[in-house]
Write a structure and sequence with these properties.
This protein is of the alpha/beta class and 305 residues long. It contains eleven helices and nine strands. It is globular, with a radius of gyration of 19 Å.
Length: 305
């Protein structure tokens, strides 16, 4: 593996499968009475979050602690960042404190790449702007493999706010590497410029895509990143691109429904769909801990041979 995890596109097929297989081994720890390994004892992992997060920050914290690492949670609230300190100066402070790994989430696309040039420790991208979120893609692939038994040849539809979604970008890159067939589905206003160059097919018609899917991944409409009107109304968006019970009934019998969270219930996904036996949403959260344990283990303490 590389020294950092900055993009899903940096992972070879062997790298990605190594992480997935390692996560499978580490997931067994969750079934034990004592859920800890001494692997990263004496190592320091810093969670550097410039954006709000629940699932990602907590799962990285749990993952590091289960590997016996020392964990420092850094929040911009109450730090020198709120006084105007630059990202570089924050990075130099962490470097001086001897951080072995920095897990970073930032509103600016490319921030983790800049950190990688300033810090000698490993950098893990936990979401940068609208760019990427590679560990989310890894846990999604891990979840698909656990539920469906394979990744090669799976037909995956990613539906919703593709324009602002770092999850969509990372999933398209990783799933293509792992041999899945990916489609992105959204209204034209929520498709990014250049999506035609992505390794996936593009559709604006959700009803045409669903009957051919093994996996449908619904994305949240990220209103906090929107300055203008991208669709007429929430009701109209839900009518055209929301996954409700009648639409779920058109999926093949073995198909699963995913969502990276947080969800807008009743908008992109109906409550009865989110809570159905086909939904993997809670599993994705649990699997996120195992996958992030695998990433930290391989970057800091594991044998990648």
């Amino acid at each position: 593996m590389n020294r950092h995890l900055l993009s899903a596109g940096d992972l070879s097929r062997d790298d990605a499968l190594l992480i997935v297989h390692t996560a499978e081994e580490l997931a067994r720890i969750s079934d034990r009475p004592i859920k800890k390994l001494p692997t990263l004892r004496g190592r320091t992992v810093v969670n550097l979050f410039f954006e709000d997060s629940t699932r990602t920050r907590l799962s990285f914290e749990v993952a590091a602690k289960r590997l016996s690492a020392d964990v420092i949670n850094f929040s911009t609230k109450g730090s020198s960042v709120s006084k105007g300190e630059s990202l570089k100066d924050t990075a130099l402070t962490l470097e001086a404190m001897g951080a072995d790994a920095v897990v970073v989430r930032h509103s600016a696309s490319g921030a983790p790449h800049r950190l990688a040039g300033w810090i000698s420790g490993a950098i893990v991208n936990a979401g940068d702007g609208t760019h990427e979120h590679p560990t989310q893609a890894l846990l999604d692939a891990f979840t698909m493999r656990r539920r469906l038994g394979r990744l090669e040849g799976l037909r995956v539809a990613i539906v919703g706010d593709i324009l602002h979604s770092r999850v969509a970008r990372s999933n398209v890159l990783l799933l293509d590497t792992l041999g899945a067939e990916v489609s992105v589905v959204a209204p034209p206003t929520l498709m990014p410029v250049g999506v035609g160059s992505w390794p996936c097919t593009v559709s604006f018609d959700l009803d045409a895509v669903l009957p051919k899917c093994d996996v449908v991944m619904m994305l949240r409409v990220q209103r906090e990143r929107m300055a203008g009107a991208y669709f007429p109304s929430a009701r109209e968006y839900s009518r055209r691109y929301g996954l409700d019970a009648p639409r779920m009934a058109t999926l093949p019998d073995t198909a699963i429904v995913m969502h990276p969270g947080p969800m807008n219930r009743g908008m992109e996904i109906a409550a009865e769909v989110a809570d159905s036996v086909r939904s993997t949403i809670v599993e994705q959260v649990a699997n996120g801990v195992a996958v992030r344990m695998a990433v930290l283990y391989l970057l800091l303490g594991g044998d990648s041979s």
